[in-house]
Amino acid sequence: MKIANDFLWGGSIAAHQCEGAFDEDNKGLGIMDLVTVGAYGQPREIHKQLSSKDRYPSHDGIDFYHRYKEDIELFAEMGFKALRISIDWSRIFPNGDEETPNQAGIEFYKNVVNELLKNGIEPIVTLYHFEMPIYLVTEYGSWTNRKVIDFYLKFCQTMFEALKGKVKYWVTFNEMNHIDPQTEASDIFTYIIAGLKYSELENKEQTLATIGYNMTLASCLAVELGHKIDDTNQIGCVFGIEPVYPVDCNPINVMNAFKQMDRDFYQIDAMCTGQFPAYKLHEYEDQGLTISITDEDIEAFAKGKLDFIGMNYYASSVAEYEGADEGKSALFGGLQNPFLPTSKWGWAIDPTGLRYLLNYTYRKYGLPIIITENGLGAVDELTSDNKISDDYRIEYLSQHIQEMRKAIELDQVDCFGYLTWGPIDLVSATTGQMSKRYGFIHVDLDDDGQGTLNRSKKKSFDWYKQVIESNGEHL
Ligand code: BGP
Q: What is the distance in A from the centroid of ligand 1 to the CA of 188?
């Protein structure tokens, strides 16, 4: 197999990290509008209400809301075949439970999609990328409440209909797999996915299990709905997955690593096999957790199978084991790998892990896969002539693309696209910083919100253009 001629090269962005305009055109308050700027080792604060003393990076983002034409033109100049955007739920239903949607919000996304199409860029639309109206959290208890599934479906229906005929690729959720009673939970991860602080949850394990189940069910229902509205829709779900390696060949450690990695797959199992996995229900039962499954749910799992799997890949980790040094913890639980370098933010750099994960996932499900995020968060320094020579970014991406090519060409994995995270600098989800940059395009904005917001090309801009032009040959 070769990289297909219509392979989707491009990038991914998310509304709350780039749009800004947080209170314009009737937008409601979204969960991320209440999160302050942090730093590496200094968590973002999560507020119950806005305070005039603090800075909330989502409020201004990188002003994509007003500059999307300029930004899309730059993506087109690089030769992008696809751009993954997200729809901010709180722009469409400001509180989440309204009868009718906010037309101004719909109009904005129609304009963005039209602009992409005009530039020959395929829009890939994520319906939930950490952008829930806060009202659904405070009034309804977020995803713990099944009513929220109905509100989500109404929002999905609104967008499926509004963008019918223009958008073919849809993503129901971004990275719901980071919420699970059996994975390492933290305030920020529980919050970005469900708007709830882990430390404040009363019945932690049960709540996370219920949320994980309800979101999985919501995804299946959205897939079924999207197919009903337009049977040419291709609907996937995006997962953020880290391969988890055993620390050595002690069978106990190998088994532990298997189990720890397996936790990231139960929702994919549910969305691809047509039923919520029995092994997971059994594990919950053992832990004294209950999930109530109705006959309608069983039908929904059977009918809402995914068309493709979206994979966000940044890093791998090593499974925890007895006697492990806790100081060596990695990003989403697990431990650092002594064989791998890390980014400034402690993320292990492991290109081979991408090939491993593509193979693992493709052999498990046989479904087409798109790499929906991959990239290096780094501090970029301007040289005296005002340029950014980001060779480290080029090296990171080039190594990962090489491994993806091996997966496609040698291992026969059906991978139909590669999207970098943050083709333009934007607000970091975990830290809220601007200084954690991913882009080919520099945005003049610092962590305090100071800067002209001017866009300029980094060295990697021309490099990626050439990668796309050569269909991945010239790296
Ligand atoms: C993924 C999220 C993105 C993005 C990325 C990089 O998990 O889907 O929204 O932010 O991680 O993370 P960060 O911005 O924290 O560096």
A: 12
